[in-house]
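R.M. (postdoc): so does anyone remember the format we settled on? I'll just put the structure tokens first.
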């Protein structure tokens, strides 16, 4: 699942300049004292409201010598700056970086070209989890066997589609408001418009093609995120052939929907649609469903999340052509064999959801102005998120975080990368250990993971010459899970028997998304199984699943190595 892994490194960044925090704190205080950043001022102007006029006024206070202008061709680096940090993109990555930056005393602005909050808040994590909250409850209410086992009787469950859609939309609005207010309250300047890098440490922002607002910054973070990736030949009309952007609005619940791709989005939406009454057909290019997950967990997940539900599937096929429904004709999907490329089948369905990954949103960013070539649209970065130029050298003062760098497309990764960059900017060399970042798929039950899958661990072991051991436990051995009548689950720990290093943990079962953090923190802190197996877990709790896992591990008796030093997280 973790596609690209950054190696740990401890070398100093060439251009990280330790700063005096006091200077910046003073700067922040002065800004507030002058009344430029009061949240109410922003509120009056709405989201993103720093006008060019107001902005230039501030520039005279803080950076009298800043000389960037639209007339400047942008090639010269400025000698003083409007901001310590300018972030392009106010998604969760940009937001996390901005909050940490002001906390560290950096004068910070964030540029947003669309709605605040980006994908996660408006078209991703937040509304999808609202829909999944509904599907979880629908499943419980519809599961007669489960209810009977608990001694419950409930009349037939139903739902109001519009009310469900409103729940998702209202939650997104609420979180968007919270996110925006948190930036304003802390004094982050929100600059509205599309941001383009016009030269070293210079960004232009405003309406595309017409903007003439230029700001200078000592450091710039690109946090422009991603959009749905739609393969060639697929025509999205937003009604019957849709991406997650459309599906989250829940404008209709089709009787039969094909879902192209069985990754996170495909799986989560299959959970939602089947709970609301749709039949689902998966179309997956790889030979098995859920190819990104640990195979053993994927197999069990298929037994629980796919086989008993109204879901069928075609694996090892590409959807090469999808035509929306029109004039009473259904959506048609042409499938070819993924290996031989021979035509395989044609499906006719009511709707199709395209869930084939995400493409970076880096067009128009002006990367060519600073000698950066993207790789399939992704901004190349090193392990410190420093942008790598076309000549292989680092571009000074330029960073890229989140989906736009493609390292690990998750909300908390974007935010953690942003925090890591700010740490570097404020004098603390910091490298994020991507192998310690957990991921979760919020199906019912949930799937979660951290670190390597078993095949990845075995491959690494072969290359580096160590043994791999596995510990496994079932949720059926857990009292709390049985009390909830939710014994269907498996937890798996992959570790080194020579030194106790945790290589990966995978959980399928009730609340797996919450349970994974004990393991991810252990990896982040370099805790070995021999240390953590002595930790105490409350009884009866689901966390005893992990306790059981740790206790099942066996460290080679000849091993005398001490537990390692904690690593940077
Ligand atoms: C359906 C769905 C469900 C998901 N669920 C989860 C989940 O449960 N957990 C999880 O961890 N992740 C989830 N994700 C992934 C998560 O949403 C992304 O990893 C995360 O949003 C990436 O954050 P980001 O800040 O890098 O980019 P984004 O959130 O995409 O934000 C980028 C922002 O930059 C703005 N922008 C772009 N270019 C410019 C420019 N030139 N100038 C100005 N502004 C610009 C955009 O308008 C946008 O607001 C989900 C994604 C989807 C699609
Ligand atoms: N709970 C979460 O954390 C969560 C939820 C949703 C999305 N996300 C993030 O959003 C990103 C996008 O999710 P996603 O599910 O779209 O991507 P994904 O990469 O997880 O899965 C895409 C799937 O589509 C298949 N595929 C690709 N092209 C195909 C084709 N032409 N025909 C058939 N199958 C094809 C791939 O083999 C893969 O299994 C992910 O990187 C994920 O990190 C996270």
């Amino acid at each position: 699942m973790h596609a690209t892994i950054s190696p740990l490194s401890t070398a100093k960044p060439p251009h990280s300049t330790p700063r005096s925090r006091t200077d910046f704190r003073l700067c922040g205080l002065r800004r507030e004292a002058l009344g430029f950043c009061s949240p109410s001022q922003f509120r009056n102007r709405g989201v993103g409201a720093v006008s060019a006029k107001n902005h230039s006024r501030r520039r005279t206070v803080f950076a009298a010598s800043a000389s960037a202008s639209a007339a400047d061709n942008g090639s010269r680096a400025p000698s003083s700056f409007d901001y310590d940090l300018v972030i392009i993109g106010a998604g969760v990555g940009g937001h996390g970086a901005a909050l940490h930056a002001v906390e560290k005393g950096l004068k910070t602005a964030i540029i947003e070209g669309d709605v605040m909050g980006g994908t996660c808040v408006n078209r991703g994590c937040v509304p999808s989890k609202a829909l999944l909250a509904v599907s979880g409850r629908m499943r419980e209410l519809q599961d007669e066997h489960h209810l009977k086992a608990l001694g419950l009787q409930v009349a037939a469950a139903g739902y109001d589609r519009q009310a469900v859609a409103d729940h998702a939309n209202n939650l997104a609005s609420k979180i968007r408001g919270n996110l925006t207010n948190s930036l304003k309250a802390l004094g982050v300047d929100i600059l509205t418009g599309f941001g383009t890098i016009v030269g070293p440490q210079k960004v232009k922002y405003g309406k595309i093609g017409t903007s003439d607002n230029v700001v200078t910054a000592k450091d710039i973070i690109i946090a422009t995120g991603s959009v749905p990736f739609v393969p060639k030949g697929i025509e999205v009309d937003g009604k019957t052939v849709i991406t997650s952007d459309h599906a989250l609005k829940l404008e209709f619940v089709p009787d039969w929907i094909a879902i192209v791709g069985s990754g996170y989005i495909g799986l989560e939406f299959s959970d939602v649609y089947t709970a609301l009454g749709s039949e689902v057909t998966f179309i997956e290019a790889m030979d098995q469903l859920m190819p990104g997950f640990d195979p053993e967990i994927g197999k069990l997940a298929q037994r629980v999340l796919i086989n008993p539900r109204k879901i069928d599937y075609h694996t090892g096929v590409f959807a090469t052509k999808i035509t929306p429904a029109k004039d009473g004709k259904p959506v048609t999907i042409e499938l070819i064999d993924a290996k031989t490329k021979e035509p395989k089948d044609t499906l006719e369905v009511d709707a199709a959801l395209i869930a084939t990954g995400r493409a970076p949103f880096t067009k128009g960013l002006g990367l060519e102005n600073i000698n950066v070539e993207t790789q399939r649209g992704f901004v190349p970065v090193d392990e410190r998120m420093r942008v790598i130029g076309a000549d292989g050298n680092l571009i000074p003062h330029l960073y890229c975080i989140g989906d736009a760098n493609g390292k690990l497309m998750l909300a908390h990764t974007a935010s953690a990368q942003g925090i890591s960059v700010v740490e570097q900017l404020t004098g603390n060399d910091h490298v994020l250990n991507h192998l310690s970042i957990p991921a979760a798929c919020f199906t019912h039950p949930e799937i979660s993971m951290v670190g390597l899958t078993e095949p990845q661990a075995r491959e690494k072991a072969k290359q580096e010459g160590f043994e791999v051991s596995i510990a496994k436990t079932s949720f059926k051995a857990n009292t709390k899970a049985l009390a909830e009548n939710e014994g269907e689950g498996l937890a798996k720990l992959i570790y080194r028997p020579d030194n106790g290093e945790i290589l990966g943990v995978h959980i399928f079962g009730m609340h797996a998304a919450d349970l994974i953090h004990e393991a991810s923190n252990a990896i982040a802190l370099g805790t070995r199984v021999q240390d953590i197996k002595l930790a105490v877990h409350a009884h009866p709790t689901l966390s005893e699943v992990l306790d059981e896992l740790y206790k099942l591990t066996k460290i080679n008796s000849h091993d005398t190595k001490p537990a390692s030093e904690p690593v940077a997280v």
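R.M.: ...and that's the designed sequence above, right after the tokens. Also worth knowing: The CA atoms of residues 146 and 152 lie 9 Å apart. Confidence is low (pLDDT under 50) at residues 1-73.
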